[in-house]
Amino acid sequence: MSHVDDSTLSAYLDADGSLSDADIITIENHLAKCPTCRQNFEATRRTKERAASILELSGPSHIAKPPFAEISARAPERGEHARRTQLFSLRRLAVAATVVLAVGVGVYAGPRLATRALPPTPSEPAAVEIAEQPRGDAVIPAEAQSEIRADAPARQSRNRTLAVIAADSVAPPPPAGRTRSQVERIGLQDAAGVPERAKLRETAPALARAPAAVQMDQARVEPLADKREPVRLIDCPEEESFLEALAGRPDVDAQRPPVMIPCLPIVSVTFEESAGKQVTVVTQQVGVGEFVTLRVLEGDEVAELDDLSFESDSINTIVARVGELTVQATGRIAVDSLRVLLRRAR
Amino acid sequence: MGLDWAAVYNDTYEDLVRFLHRQVWDSDRAQDLAQEVFVRVLDKEPENPRAFVFTVAVNLARDEARTAARRKKHLTLLKNETELRQEMTPGLDDELDVSHRHDSVRRALAELNERDRETLLLWDAGLDYAEIAAQSGLSLRSVGTTLARARKRLVKVYDSLEAKSVAR
To answer: Pick from A315, A346, A319, A273: which is nearest to A25 by CA?
Structure first.
């Protein structure tokens, strides 16, 4: 893939919901191996933070919010005023029309009466000008308003707290036969203690965009409805069934399975050339619109191990040993989460 | 009448005042305008109330800016006020510093073109790309580019203003 352009980088950094899951995976894969783009990403992120903190300096000296009742009490006056204005302009329109008519007749009839030879002069421009509709409060054009769609991609929480998977937060497998809705939900409250319901309006469109629950053979992964919720691995099957699931994929050599995290759905398995060797790149889903990408590092790549781990607000990469191999995990999730996931990788 | 304007008002009012303040640079005026925005929208039922509120605010702020540009008085007055405060309170470094930085932000924002400034301020007020696009007529992709450019320019101009004032 070519370098990530500025517009895409902004959209990725701002997590505005305009990028598809596939876009996000491509960007993260590219960032994980391209120091140039990573530098660009870090610079863009720093600029974003700087700009926000500069703007923060320019707040108003005080904000006093009058009760809503005061505002709504003022609205009817305005309605009255608007009606009067409308009435007035109707009258004005009538006067204008009369004037136009008179002028029109004058222009039309005058010369005709005088010379009976000249063609009629069109009077429309004058009429249009005088009879122009009052603007009223049509501040927003109708078409622009209809463009403010209700189904616009949900904005992901701005300064979001990234999901942290603490080892103890991995929910125990629920008793067999339970449906997903019966699975006890954890992390229903965020740090500030705001009940989940209050957040529903924001998260609902995001949920609609992504699968409700992720299913892989007998494995079930609860979606990350909110980044504050931890990743949960539920019903994780034994190793044999994990390999069985892999066998169903033509792109995976079941005899030599690539490094991956059991129980997480596989989004893609691709191969890339790195230092003359073929490296398998596995992308797995860890939640709604969230992915982790695993690459086995070999040869020269391992030498610059420090350069290959990086942390930021939005995307993190860590490098760790998995058995005999050195594996790099990249994702838009917290470093702690990556570490826990990588610990389970095999 | 499914729309709960009271809730929108409670959620949005402060962001709206901050947004307007960065356009008119007068706390009281910003609040008057914010209230005026709500008075105007209450009888409407837009699909996205928050985006709608900001759209009305953008238009009000533009009108305000044009009026201010005609009068020029507004700007001169504020400038004098800042200078006066600096003269009168030479000992209060912190306060002076705040008012000085405030002034730099204002001048840096003034260096941006209208579209870049509005995009940046709308984003800062919490609108997403789709809402900004609907409001400004920009495409989704251009919102990202515009935002990145606006941020870069703001930081650059602000830093150069601060560097100058340190050198002085």
So the answer is: A315
Tens digit of each residue's pLDDT (9 = 90 or more) over A7-32: 888 888 887 777 888 888 888 889 88
Contacts of B21 (CB under 8 A, 6+ apart): A58, A59, A60, B27, B30
Q: Do B52 and A148 touch (CB under 8 A)?
A: yes
Conformation bin of residue A276: beta by default, left when phi > 0, alpha when psi is -120 to 50: left
Nearest to A286 by CA among A344, A244, A205: A344
pLDDT tens digit sequence for A176-222: 333 333 322 222 233 333 333 333 333 333 333 333 444 443 444 44
Read off the DSSP letter of residue B50.
H
Q: How far apart are CA A48 and CA A203, in angstroms?
A: 24
CA–CA separation, A261 and A315 (whole Å)? 19
Residue closest to A310 by CA, chosen among A47, A23, A37: A37
From chain B, the residues in CB contact with A153 under 8 A are 128, 130
Mark yes or no for CB contact B21/A149 under 8 Å.
Answer: no
Question: Pick from A48, A57, A78: which is nearest to B105 by CB?
Answer: A57
Q: Which residue of B has its CA nearest to A73?
A: B39
Is the overall model pTM greater than 0.80, yes or no?
no
Q: Alpha-carbon torsion B82, B86, B91, B93, what sign?
A: positive
Q: What are A294's strand-pairing partners?
A: A282, A329
Contact A312, A47 (CB under 8 A): no
Contacts of A11 in chain B (CB under 8 A): 129, 140-141, 144
- Taking only the tens place, the pLDDT of each residue in A59-74 is 887 888 888 888 888 8
**The two structure tokens encoding residue A117:** 């030879």
Which of A11, A32, A33, A35 shows the shortest CA–CA distance to A23?
A11
Residue of B nearest to A11 (CA): B144
